[in-house]
Prior knowledge:
Radius of gyration: 32 Å
Keywords: GTP-binding, Magnesium, Metal-binding, Nucleotide-binding
Helix content: 40-55%
Family: Belongs to the TRAFAC class TrmE-Era-EngA-EngB-Septin-like GTPase superfamily. EngB GTPase family.
Cofactor: Mg(2+)
Strand order of the largest sheet: 1-3-4-2-5-6-7
Largest sheet: 7 strands, mixed
Order of helices and strands: HHHHHEEHEEHEHEHEH
Strand content: 5-15%
GO molecular function, one term: metal ion binding
Distance between the termini: 84 Å
Domain EngB-type G: 175-348
Amino acid sequence: MMTNSLQTLKVKLLRRALCAGKQTAEMLGCRRQQCCHLHQRQSGVAHPLPSQTGSRTSLVRACIEAKRMHCHFKRPVGTAHHLKMHSRLHGDREARIHLHLARMTSSQQSSQPALNPLFKLQPFLTQPILKDAELIFTPSEADIARATALFVSSASHRIEFVRGAYYPEEAPNYNLPEIAFIGRSNVGKSSLIKALFSEIEGLKVRTSKTPGHTKLLLFFQVGRAFSLVDMPGYGYRQPANFITSAEGFLKSRKNLRNTFLLVDSFVGLKQWDYVAIEMLEEFAIPYLVVLTKSDKATRRQLIENIMTVSRVIRENTQGCLPQPFLVSAKSGEGLPFLKGFIAYTTGNL
């Protein structure tokens, strides 16, 4: 009895599957018949229909075709694959244009992780590390190449140390776009500048592991493109004239395009960093945050400190660029991307 029941159940299931397959075959057969008639009108070549090739063969082919169609239409509408299928079926010029734009957008998005080291952390997060509106600077590889060339010295494009100044009145008087690096003592300002100018022979950038090593405003000239200023560190062992020197410089420099606030990615924002943010907000000058020493921080530390910086920028600032930068002077990570933004903010890109 059990065997007969199982056989009866198998027969019912087989009949149900055959009926479903037959309905699918009929639907696809009608669709194919319409396509064949249309092709015959255009080319004059006759094609066999499913009914002419044997019912069993046509049923199998129809089931396979139904599976393929199901797989195609499972893809999200608007992808490059969908637009490609639409362009093939309809020959629509607009669809081909959208396909080209989709490919360009896809290639640009795929190149961003290689350029911006922040994106390497995205696979470990359930939310975007930066919102779309916060991605202000999204250069191409060609832009990065042009920016990198600015940091190579030549006879017509000399990169040199100009002078040091205790007070803003002693600063060089030239009409060049200017950027300034500011941060806590021992955050890595001088090391970062040395890494940016690493390909320049004869240019000495003094670095030290001792906090508060930089006592002066140090001016570097990059051809006729821009000037870079290494400011004294604040916080522990800051110079006695720091307030007069730093505040006077930030307030008085008319050609200052951007101030780069350096934050240690290993330890994150500290009390003195919040004071610096308040000062820059009070002066109403444009600035951005650069997280240094990414090679020393663990992945968890990087994620926590970057998310904290992004939240502070989003909630407590008005003049800060919403897009932070991540660099390592030791490994070189993020340096090309930072060079690109320096070229961009100084009007050289």
